């Protein structure tokens, strides 16, 4: 149903109906913005990347293959725009066994205060930024967009098997980052 | 010790994609290895927390920004061509590599100029080939610029503007000055919040623009202009100080906050 609506809106946009493209922006601005935000973390950068993604999608609409899902195509552009922005800013962080040097030891007052002050969500998002960007992207698409392995594979242009392997590795790395920051959850 | 195969089974179990045969295999591993259960619990909690993070509403400016860029496409594209054409012409005339060599070759002397600036508190005049530079990377084709603030420069015998335009994290800082006197105009900024991406020099031979600041010499009488392409390092507004001198007299001093 949604895909049919998207296809109609794409067709109308190609016929010169820019309002139809405006409806596509309405439908997808939230996921596109959130993909960019979780990859980039910075709100202004995320808005820039999301805006660029829509503009680029509009400019390339003629190349859209209608046998694909529109949102997969659009999310791929959003991921690429976000990564391009990271490259431009030279903010391609790599996780090299964590950055534990600046993390106070568990049990200190400073550590306890910090844990209390930060919400679990912020801790997770902080940890996410320490992942390699390709690992971060699969986490974002799987857990923040709720996409299937197959859909993530379509967006990233990689086999489903690679998606799984990358996702499972990313989860393990993220868990280790959180543990290193004293944010493990041994109940 | 937990190997990749076990990790894969744990993750499949968490995602609900594990097959019956794989589940049996995982059970066998669990009975033999006491480290598996705590790890699986840890991962399960983390995945639940990740799934629980709610999406953020996009800023209200996103949709209008996209539509504003798209609706007047032909007009906007024409404007962009005109706005960005000086740096394209400049790059085409001298060649990208030559530009990079010219800028990078002057890095050391440019740094000396910065030291001079810091010591004297007033801009030092250096030759254009001495300017320190970063890699020239102009705007992408078809970039749609968002117009920022335009600040008039008003001083005795001087007219001009400082204007800002935005594209993603790039800020174009353009200074235009007309004067009957010989003037020096300088910019200075905080490298912690801002970096220089590229320059488009003015027409006067003595102009010097660098990654740490710049000087524009306006000959008598004359009009001159330059554009610096800054990269914002964060979304926070960043200060750029612009100062205008006639001989040693300061005529104009303004700090602009660049950023949306």
What is the compact description of this entry?
With 187 residues, chain A is an all-alpha fold.
Commentary on this structure:
The complex is a heterodimer of chains A (187) and B (260). Chain A has 2 domains: 2-88, RNA polymerase sigma factor, region 2, helix turn helix motif (Rna Polymerase Sigma Factor, Chain: A, Orthogonal Bundle); 104-180, Winged helix-like DNA-binding domain superfamily/Winged helix DNA-binding domain (Arc Repressor Mutant, subunit A, Orthogonal Bundle). Chain A is mainly α. Chain A is elongated. Chain A contains 9 helices and no strands. In chain A, helix 3 (43-59) packs across helix 4, helix 4 packs across helix 8 (149-156) and helix 7 (133-144) crosses helix 9. With 260 residues, chain B is α+β, with helices and mostly antiparallel strands. Chain B folds into 2 domains: 4-52, no CATH class; 73-258, Sandwich (Immunoglobulin-like). Chain B contains 7 helices and 10 strands. In chain B, the strands form 2 sheets. Chain B has a 5-stranded antiparallel sheet with strand order 1-2-3-8-5. A 5-stranded antiparallel sheet of chain B has the order 6-7-4-9-10, with no helix packed on it. In chain B, a hairpin with a 2-residue loop joins strand 1 and strand 2 (158-167). In chain B, helix 1 crosses helix 2 (20-32). The longest helix of chain B is centred in the N-terminal third of the chain and has 22 residues, at 73-94. Chain B is elongated and about 90 Å long. Chain B starts with a helix and ends with a strand. The relative contact order of chain B is 0.11. Chains A and B meet through helix 2, helix 3, helix 6, helix 7 and helix 9 of A and helix 1, helix 3 and helix 4 of B.
